[in-house]
Structure formats: structure tokens, C-alpha cells
Design goal:
By secondary structure, the protein is of the alpha/beta class. The protein has two domains: about 230 residues, 3-Layer(bba) Sandwich (Glucose Oxidase, domain 1), CATH 3.50.30.40; about 60 residues, no CATH class. It contains twelve helices and eleven strands. It is elongated and about 70 Å long.
């Protein structure tokens, strides 16, 4: 059986050498994201649950990072961002774009192919055309700031009209005051500059990309907060959220019982006794605002080792 990393490499090499497509086919994207077993968009990307995306906003970066580390995914975080609205949280499904320094012959291949596919406008607008509601436009523009501004306020308005979220750029933007005026739009970028995009080219849409320390695939889920961004493989979203919500309930119970003096810190911080577990279950019965449904909670606790 071909290993996943070999599959990704083969798809990327085939794409880059042949330049037969700007975006991988739905079947190729399914191969890239083979561990996702649920519903998909027409382009092949995982169609993760809107309900769990909304609940993801309450998950801390540390909880998400720790969960993924325990699953063996140690390269899913990138920090040190300039954020348009730093006190906001952004979640969504990833649409990727790869940019590279301009090489005229390759750039011509991409633009010629785009014409045959009916794409219009500058190539930096093409990823925007494929966005759907709830998507986040994530682009690797190799940290270029001066002459590396992928969007200004015009394209920012187009992005928000289609996605109702924002962008993550390993590069820069321009027209920052105009972008700030787009109500609801947000962006995690590496800088601002008044220049316009030059000597850059689009190399692919919905291909695997690198964002700093992280490897990002199309259909991943973004959790973007003030402290940075975690890129979550789609297959982990539901369990990650439920795990975080359960930990929050455990912590709330433990903190309350510590304040009441019922248990010592040593009792709460170690493996719980059957007595504490029973107390916790009784405590759950009187909670009015659980972060998940009781059915979800009961199902989760069946497989939980506490």
C-alpha cells in the first residue's frame, strides 16, 4: 500500500510537471484527504459539520494543539501573526493557494490553462472564485511583504461576500484601512504594505501548502485566535471538539469542588476514584448549559478512560 506522504508527493509532482490543471481533480483531493470518511463538496474537499465548526470557536489553541500532538500531528501550528481584528476568532474550511516567485514560462502555462477553464481577472483572484460559505482562503506567498500583497479592499470584499470569514496569508495585504471597514472580515497575515503584487505567480489552488511551521491540506479546518493558528485535519474535528468540551466540564467540576473544599488538589489532579466519578456524573445531571448534547456526552464517556 502506498504511504500517504508518497501519495501527496506523487500528486504534487504530477501537478507541477504536467501543469495540466490549476486545481487537483476531486478524486485527487479525495486521495489527499483519504482519512476523512464523511460528506464532501463537489471539489472533493471534506464537508465538515457547521455545528462543530461553530463549537470549535470555544476550543483553546493549547487544547487543539495538544490533541493533535497526541495524535502524532506535531506540525499544525503557526504563530507570530499580524491580525486585522485580534480579539476575534475565525474558524472555517481551508481553500489553499500556492504562490511562487515569477517564472515567465511557468506563469504562461498557468494563465493559458486558466483561459481554457474560463477563469477571468488576475490570477490572485482565481482562488477567491472557488470560495464557498464557511471557507477560509489560506495562501502561501512565501513570506513576501513588499510587492507581495495578495489582496486589497476590493478583493477583500469579494472574499467576504463568498465566504463570510477571511484569510490566512503567509505574506501581505494592502489597503488595510479598507479591509478594516469590511464588517466581519478578518485576516491573519505576516504584514502590510502599500505596494501591489509584482514578480509573483499562482502555482496552484487546493494543493498541499506550507504555512510557516505547518503543513496544510485543502479541507483542513482553521482555528485562528490571537495567539496563532492551528490547522486541524478534517477527520479530527468532531472528536477534538468533544474532547475539549469534556475537559472543560471536568475542569469546571474540579474547580467547583476545590473551592468547596470537598476534595484536595491531589485527588482532582490524579486518576479519579469511583467516588469522584460518581459525584461528577451527578453534577452533570444538574447542569443546565452543557456545551454538547447529553446524548453526545454519554456516547463520548463510554469510550473515555477519564
Amino acid at each position: 500500500m502506498m504511504r500517504p506522504i508518497c501519495i501527496i508527493a506523487l500528486i504534487c509532482v504530477t501537478f507541477n510537471l504536467s501543469a495540466q490543471q490549476i486545481t487537483p481533480t476531486p478524486e485527487q483531493i479525495k486521495t489527499l484527504t483519504a482519512e476523512w470518511k464523511g460528506e464532501r463538496f463537489a471539489d472533493g474537499r471534506p464537508k465538515t459539520s457547521d455545528r462543530f465548526l461553530a463549537r470549535l470557536k470555544n476550543v483553546s489553541l493549547e487544547e487543539a494543539w495538544g490533541y493533535l500532538r497526541n495524535k502524532g500531528y506535531q506540525n499544525q501550528f503557526e504563530g507570530d501573526w499580524t491580525i486585522i481584528r485580534p480579539d476575534s476568532v475565525m474558524v472555517g474550511r481551508v481553500v489553499t493557494a500556492q504562490y511562487m516567485p515569477l517564472r515567465p514560462d511557468y506563469d504562461k502555462l498557468i494563465k493559458d490553462k486558466g483561459k481554457t477553464e474560463g477563469r477571468i481577472g488576475g490570477t490572485n483572484s482565481w482562488p477567491i472564485d472557488v470560495l464557498q460559505n464557511g471557507d477560509v482562503y489560506v495562501a502561501d506567498s512565501y513570506g513576501k511583504i513588499v510587492d507581495g500583497t495578495l489582496i486589497g479592499d476590493n478583493l477583500g470584499n469579494a472574499i467576504y461576500a463568498k465566504s463570510h470569514t477571511g484569510v490566512v496569508f503567509y505574506g501581505s495585504v494592502r489597503d488595510i484601512e479598507g479591509l478594516e471597514e469590511i464588517n466581519g472580515f478578518n485576516g491573519w497575515v505576516k504584514g502590510y504594505d502599500p505596494s501591489y503584487i509584482q514578480q509573483m505567480m499562482l502555482a496552484g489552488i487546493n494543493v498541499p501548502i506550507r504555512i510557516g511551521r505547518a503543513t496544510v491540506l485543502p479541507g483542513d479546518v482553521v482555528l485562528a485566535k490571537k495567539g496563532g493558528i492551528v490547522f486541524i485535519p478534517a477527520q479530527f474535528l468532531e472528536d477534538l471538539v468533544l474532547n475539549s468540551e469534556f475537559v472543560q466540564l471536568r475542569d469546571a467540576f474540579g474547580h467547583q469542588r476545590l473551592r468547596e473544599g470537598k476534595y484536595t488538589p491531589g485527588q482532582i489532579d490524579q486518576q479519579w476514584t469511583d467516588e469522584i466519578k460518581k459525584d461528577f456524573l451527578q453534577w452533570l445531571d444538574i447542569q443546565k448549559d452543557l456545551p454538547m448534547t447529553r446524548q453526545e456526552l454519554d456516547a463520548y464517556m463510554k469510550d473515555r478512560t477519564w
